[in-house]
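Quick one, probably user error.
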């Protein structure tokens, strides 16, 4: 049974790995911004760029999912 679903498990595991990486990047950025006493505008720019990266990753997942479903 495991061999039949190996590809699905691999995809889900890789997606969870990247989600974890994004989480740790966010925590590191939060710490750097806090310790560096960055002004509010700079913080917003940094979080917006991080948000765009996460959104692009999620959009890529949706596009590949729906692209694979097309005949």
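Nope, works fine. Designed sequence:
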């Amino acid at each position: 049974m495991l061999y039949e679903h190996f590809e699905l498990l691999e995809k889900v595991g890789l997606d969870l790995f990247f989600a974890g990486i994004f989480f740790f990047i966010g925590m590191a950025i939060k710490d750097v911004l806090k310790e560096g006493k960055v002004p509010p505008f700079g913080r917003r720019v940094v979080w917006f760029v991080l948000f765009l990266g996460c959104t692009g990753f999620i959009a890529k997942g949706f596009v590949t999912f729906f692209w694979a479903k097309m005949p």
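The chain has a mean pLDDT of 87.
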